[in-house]
Amino acid sequence: MKKSSKIAFVIFNIIYFFVDYILVTFLPNPILFGWLPLQLCILLFLPVPAAIVWGIYFNAFFNTQKHVKS
Amino acid sequence: MKPAVFISLGILAYAIFIVWHGFRSFKSTSESSEKFFTADRGLNPFVLLCTTSISVFSALAFYGAPSGIYKDGIGFYSNTGGMVAGLMFVILGYRLWLLGKEYGFTTPVDYLRSRYYSEGYGLLVSIVLILFIIPYVAMQLIAIGDAVVVTTEGMVPYVIAVAVGTIVVSLHIIGGGMGSVAWMDTFHMCLGFGTLLTLIVYLTMHYFPNGGFVEAVDIMRQNGTFDILSTPGPNGAFDWKGIVGNALTGAIATVVWPHIFMRTFVASSKENFRQMSWAMPISYVLVYTPIVLIGAILAPAILGAGFDKPDNIVAVLSTQYAPPFIAFISLLCLFAFGVSTADSLLLSASAMASRDIYLHHVYELKGRSSDSKQVVKFGRIVLLVLMIITLIIVAVRPASITDYAYKLSSPFFAQILPATVAGLFWKKATKEGAIAGTVSGLIVAIIFTFIVTPPLGFSALIWALVVNTALLVIVSLCTKVPEEIIAKYHTRIDSIIYSGAELTSLTDATIAAVNEK
């Protein structure tokens, strides 16, 4: 895999975990759709885009592992 | 028919089904320890996903998470750590899987003893892990026993409930080993998710028919529970430090819990890890969303502020605020979470006792050849012994011992994390470093759990990991790793992972150069 992809992946994770562990507590907390507070929305659903990015990255990584026998 | 009778019969049917499922494959799993403990390293991606995820979600997640959120607000949910376990499972798991294929590893002890070329270290790790699995399993069964008593209105006494629970879980594993556990976990994952949805849909439609969650949140604004929906929560527990501590404590070491660690060895192919990278966090989101909504919105809106038994909100909601069928569904959900964690942990304890202690010390070290069937037989005997010990603990319920041991379980399991990571990615990690780190981590965990309050608001587990890692690095830098260990665990594995990648890159570069010309 390209080094730039690896660096981008590391930076993405640093930002993701910073938002999910720290920044979330400092964000305003408006109620979305009449019932979902923003902070809860982030804690609950931010992992979904993170999962997509992880999936894309590891899909690319495992494409380089075709030589590994199952 | 009285509701309690209906629920008791339902539990009986469920128990018979589980034992039958385990003993279906008794004969075939008796033939080899590989089949019994690793299901012939043949779990497909969906089964591996379900068995790993549901093994992480314990009975305490189903009962504890809504209670924690009700008491301290949504910040409590950070204990999933942004689903970091999914990321770690792939990053660590792929290398561990390759090592397992190369050298036949089955348990965490197999790997750590061999990577750190130390029989003593292997024995220390196996004893610590086995000893502290028992209280963790006991807590699952105690939660189930308590819930059965509440749900059947005392018709099934506590002792009978925990006895049936313990015997059923143990017989299920004795019968079918890892294959049976994995398939039953898959069933439990579907059951748990389905029952959670049923519970949440019923409570929402019945109590908030004119607006659902919007109506519930409006009620929360008026009944004094609105603080639950924000950080730092009603008691101020979850500011950023509280969340970081909770996230790291709850999630970072999950991957080295013995039963999760073992699952890195049982994947049928590398495709499992490709799928796990996105599917495991998504499974967390799917299962935890209803759990969080119960604790954060439904319970506060229905029960109001200052409910006097916050630890029992799920049991109370499902028995006193719902019809018997929903109470039964909720109990099944608890079974799904509790049984799946308990059976996986007991199997890992049996694997470590039979393979890492009995087989390794009685046969392999003495140069004697072992019979695979004999190992399975011994593993089953260990399970019977563990069943009896667990049965005594859950029946007698020695509060202090169970509580103390349970508090140490997770911090103690976590102490193999630095050695595991360093052993995979750092060539200079030595036996002396691993021993110094792990032992110091165990000592710090005990001190900060029972004697001194951990500083800066971080948990005993985090401080123990920091000291553990620091000593592992310092002592490793002062000592030397044998060359054959580097060749076996780093050069060999790196060559497997990167040789193909290098070849592909070289081919791409050559094609690009030719095209450019």
TrEMBL record, chain A:
This is Uncharacterized protein. The chain crosses the membrane at residues 7-27, 33-62. The lineage of its organism: Bacteria, Bacillati, Bacillota, Clostridia, Lachnospirales. Keywords: Membrane, Transmembrane, Transmembrane helix.
From TrEMBL, chain B:
The keyword Transmembrane applies. It catalyses: L-proline(in) + Na(+)(in) = L-proline(out) + Na(+)(out). Keywords: Cell membrane, Ion transport, Membrane, Sodium, Sodium transport, Symport, Transmembrane, Transmembrane helix, Transport. The chain crosses the membrane at residues 6-23, 43-64, 76-99, 120-143, 155-174, 186-208, 243-261, 282-305, 325-347, 378-396, 408-426, 433-452, 458-478. It is found in: Cell membrane. It is a multi-pass membrane protein. PANTHER family: SODIUM/PROLINE SYMPORTER-RELATED (PTHR48086), SODIUM_PROLINE SYMPORTER (PTHR48086:SF3). Belongs to the sodium:solute symporter (SSF) (TC 2.A.21) family. This is Sodium:solute symporter family protein. It comes from Faecalicatena faecalis.
